[in-house]
Each structure stands twice: as C-alpha cells, then as structure tokens.
C-alpha cells in the first residue's frame, strides 16, 4: 500500500512538473506576444544630416507569414529617406512602397536590390502610400521579433 | 495492480486535459496579441495594417511654407484647459495644444512654446499618454535642453514619445483623436495667420493636399473609435468632408517611378489636380467652424 502511495505521489509530482512546464511555456509565449518594441526604429540607419525626423516612423512586432502595412501620406516636393531594420533572427527585411490608389502600383521593392535597408525617394506630388514590411526568411512559428521603419524628410524648397 | 492501472488512466486523462488546455491557450494568445489591429487573413499570410498621420508640425510647415507671419492671437487659451471634460474633448485638445506648441516653436517663440509644452506634459501625464517607465518627462527633456538644438527638438521628442506609446499599446482611437485635433489646429493656423496666401494657387494646392490626410483620418475614425465617439466626430467632420469632396482629379491617375543616377527613386503623378470650383474659401470656413466648436472660449 505504501508503495502504491509512493507511485501515486510520483505520478502527482510528474503531473505537477508537466503542468508547470506547460504554464511556463505559455507565460513565455505571452511575454513574447506582448513584448514592447517601442523605440526599435531608432536602431535603423540614420538619414543624412540635413533630414528631419518624421512622426511617420514606427516600431513593430514581426511574425512568420505576417505583413505589416503602414498607411501614410507623403507630401509633394519633398525627399523621404526610409530605412528599415529588424532583429538579427528575422533575417532580411522585405520592404515595398505601394501607391495607395486604384492601381496599387508597387513603386519600390527592395527585394530586387538584395533587400537594401535604406532608400531615398523624391516625391513630386503629394500622394497616399503604403509601406509594407515583412520578414520572408523568418520561419519561427512561436516567437515574434522587433523591427522598425524610420522615415525622415527633407524639404526641396529650403 | 488495479490501482496502478487506475493511476495510468488518471494520468492519460490529465494529459488529455493539459493538451486541450495548452492548445486553447496558445490559440487565445496568438489571437489576443493582434486583436486591436486591422487584420486581414489571406490563404497563407496575415496582413496587419496601421495608419501614420504627419505631426501638426509637418502639416503646418508644409502648408505655410514659411510664407505666413506669426499671429499669436490665434493661439488657444491655455487658461481654459480645465474646461475640456470628456476624454474625446481632452484628446482633441491635446492635439490642438501640440499644434500650438509647434506653431510657436516654428517661429522661435521659445517662451510661448514652453508654456504649451508644460500644459501638454500635464495633460499627457493625466491621460497616461507617456510610457509608464518614463517619469518626469518634462524635467528630463528640460535637462537635455543643452544638448538639444532648440525647442523644436523638445516638441519632436514629446510628440514621438506619445505616438510611439499609443502605437505600442494599441491605443489607435486615442491616436486618431489627437491627430484630428492637431490636423484642424494646423489648418486653422495656416489659413488664418497674417500673410496667408489663400488666393494663390500654390498655397491653395497645399491646402487641397490635406484631403489625403483627411481620408486617412476618416478611415481611422471608422476603425478605431467607439460608437459614441464615432458618431460625434464623423458628424463634426461632415462639413469639411463635403467641401473637400469638391476636389477632384482630372483624367486617369498614373504614378511613375524613375531611378536617378545617385540611386534616389523619383516618384511622380501625371494627373492634374483641380478643384471642380473655387471652394478654398469653403474649406477655410469649415475649418474655422470646426475649430470654433472644439476650442473652449
């Protein structure tokens, strides 16, 4: 009887350990999903000195098979310097600039330039654009990682 | 022996429960982290969509283009800040005060800009607009003043901190209202300042360009505001939306891109933008009307 109780006690301990492991995993997952990426965009490459920081910059959380689209308006007669970056684990960051009109024309795609992280745009007319970001080489199902996009502008007429 | 088998059965049952619990929890966690965002699911990938509105400073400088004179009489009365009672009023007023600070700072009126800074700092603290780990934001920014070029940088840092915090904590409705307040006040200041060249084509076109910001604000109101706020704010913007709808583009719009020798990508649109009538005065009138409604006297 004592042995049986011992066995039962061992099983209870086993179940407790298993339960704690599962809960631990869940808490760590929750921690990942709720992680703050605030300020990560500041890690992206800086713009040339005469450019001004724009409030259009964002830090985001990236996951496998997820695209992030940021709707913005770029003013005409301005230059916009865009730089993207992400945690090393994400691999290269895919960045596209898309015209937010009926045609949804892709204006720029960094995939054709080996995922270049910075690009200067000269905007002639004010237009609505979408900045689309993804991490095509990131295959981790469970974890999210931080990425950012920095937008700087320069007035051509200054 | 029977007890041993009973234990195995109990363990199996417990394991099944644990598996079920784990699966449910993982599903719940994976969906709750993105619940406040605009998401569409395709066959293989999710798309998360955000909006980013230029700050009052960016809107203001784009419209006035250094062509207007500083007109302090237009600024919102700091003493009336206690009259904004509802959270909608307070968020709109925060955007309005930020635009006033940007206006004063852009004309190097440091004393005035600092008074608006102190007020926005107080409102921001009361409304938890700043990241919780940053204490005494005003003191911190003021201590760093020696290292900063000007009051403009204090404004930038304050505004970017608020926007980044709201984005980080999925508070997109609050962001929409602050942006709306800043948008209207920026338009009001640009249109009413001494030397404002409303009648000139270039100035008018820069005002018309704000239609794109307005379109994005309208989308944000629909997506992120609660029903009460949505009803009120959409009604408030009805007049301005109507006059901006008179703006149209002639002919099909095509966007062209060209890579310059220095690597820059030049993007232009071939469409001719032309208002169907001459309604710039109507925009002016509607902006003043809405600003009059929002600002306490």
Cα radius of gyration of chain B in angstroms? 25 Å
The number of helical segments of chain A is 1
What are the secondary-structure elements of chain A, in order, as H or E?
A: HEEEEEEEEE
Helix content of chain A: 10-25%
Strand content of chain A: 35-45%
Gap between N and C termini of chain B: 86 Å
CATH class of the largest domain in chain A: Mainly Beta
- Give the SSE order of chain B as H and E letters: HEEHHHHHHHHHHEEEEH
Strand element count of chain A: 9
Q: Strand portion of chain B, in percent?
A: 5-15%
Average pLDDT rating of chain A: 85
Anisotropy-based shape of chain B: globular
Low-confidence segments of chain B, ≥5 residues, pLDDT <50? Answer: 24-37
Count of discrete structural domains of chain A: 2
Number of helices of chain B: 12
Distance between the termini of chain A: 91 Å
The secondary structure category of chain A is: alpha+beta
CATH architecture of the largest domain in chain A: Sandwich
Reported for the largest beta sheet of chain A, the result is: 5 strands, antiparallel
Describe the structure.
The complex is a heterodimer of chains A (158) and B (297). By secondary structure, chain A is an alpha+beta fold. Chain A contains 1 helix and 9 strands, in the order αβββββββββ. In chain A, strands 1, 2, 4, 7 and 9 form a 5-stranded antiparallel β-sheet that branches. In chain A, strands 3-8-5-6 form a 4-stranded antiparallel β-sheet, with no helix packed on it. In chain A, a hairpin with a 6-residue loop joins strand 5 and strand 6 (106-109). By secondary structure, chain B is mainly α. Chain B has one domain (56-294). Chain B has a two-stranded antiparallel sheet. In chain B, helix 2 runs parallel beside helix 7, helix 3 (87-106) packs across helix 7 and helix 9 (210-224) packs antiparallel against helix 10 (227-236). The longest helix of chain B is centred in the first third of the chain and has 31 residues, at 2-32. In chain B, 35% of the residues are buried. The model of chain B is unreliable at 24-37 (pLDDT under 50). The chains are: A alpha+beta (158), B mainly alpha (297). The interface between A and B is large, with 64 and 62 residues.
């Amino acid at each position: 009887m004592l042995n049986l109780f011992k066995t039962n006690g061992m099983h209870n301990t086993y179940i407790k350990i298993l339960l704690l492991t599962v809960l631990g995993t869940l808490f760590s997952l929750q921690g990942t999903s709720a992680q703050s990426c605030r300020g990560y965009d500041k890690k992206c490459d800086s713009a040339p000195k005469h450019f001004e920081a724009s409030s259009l910059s964002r830090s985001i959380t990236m996951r496998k098979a997820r695209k992030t689209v940021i709707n913005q308006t770029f003013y005409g007669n301005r230059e916009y310097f865009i730089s993207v970056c992400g945690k090393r684990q994400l691999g290269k960051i895919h960045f596209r600039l898309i015209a937010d009109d009926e045609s949804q024309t892709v204006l720029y795609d960094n995939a054709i330039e080996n995922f270049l992280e910075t690009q200067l745009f000269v905007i002639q007319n004010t237009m609505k654009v979408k900045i689309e970001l993804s991490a095509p080489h990131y295959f981790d199902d469970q974890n999210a990682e931080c990425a950012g996009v920095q937008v700087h502008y320069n007035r051509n007429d200054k | 022996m029977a007890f041993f088998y009973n234990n195995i059965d109990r363990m199996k049952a417990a394991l099944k429960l644990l598996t079920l619990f784990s699966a449910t929890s993982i599903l719940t966690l994976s969906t709750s982290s993105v619940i406040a965002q605009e998401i569409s699911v395709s066959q293989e990938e999710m798309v998360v969509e955000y909006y980013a509105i230029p700050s009052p400073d960016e809107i203001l400088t784009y419209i006035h283009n250094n062509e207007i004179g500083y007109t302090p009489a237009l600024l919102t009365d700091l003493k009336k800040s206690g009259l904004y009672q509802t959270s909608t009023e307070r968020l709109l007023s925060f955007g309005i005060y930020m635009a006033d600070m940007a206006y004063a700072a852009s004309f190097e009126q440091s004393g005035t800009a600092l008074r608006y800074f102190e007020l926005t700092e107080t409102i921001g603290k009361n409304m938890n607009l700043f990241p919780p780990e940053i204490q005494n934001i005003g003191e911190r920014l003021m201590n760093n003043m020696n290292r900063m070029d000007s009051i403009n940088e204090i404004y930038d840092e304050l505004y970017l901190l608020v926007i980044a915090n709201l984005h980080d904590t999925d508070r997109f409705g609050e962001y929409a209202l602050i942006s709306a307040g800043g948008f209207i006040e920026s338009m009001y200041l640009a249109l009413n300042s001494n030397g404002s060249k409303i009648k000139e084509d270039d100035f008018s076109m820069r005002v018309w360009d704000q239609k794109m910001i307005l379109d994005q604000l309208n989308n944000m109101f629909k997506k992120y505001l609660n029903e009460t706020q949505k009803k009120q704010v959409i009604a408030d913007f009805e007049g301005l939306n109507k006059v901006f709808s008179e703006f149209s583009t002639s002919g099909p719009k095509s966007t062209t891109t060209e890579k310059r020798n220095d690597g820059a990508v030049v993007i232009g649109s071939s469409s001719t933008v032309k208002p169907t009538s001459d309604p710039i005065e109507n925009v002016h009138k509607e902006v003043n009307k809405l600003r009059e409604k929002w600002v306490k006297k």
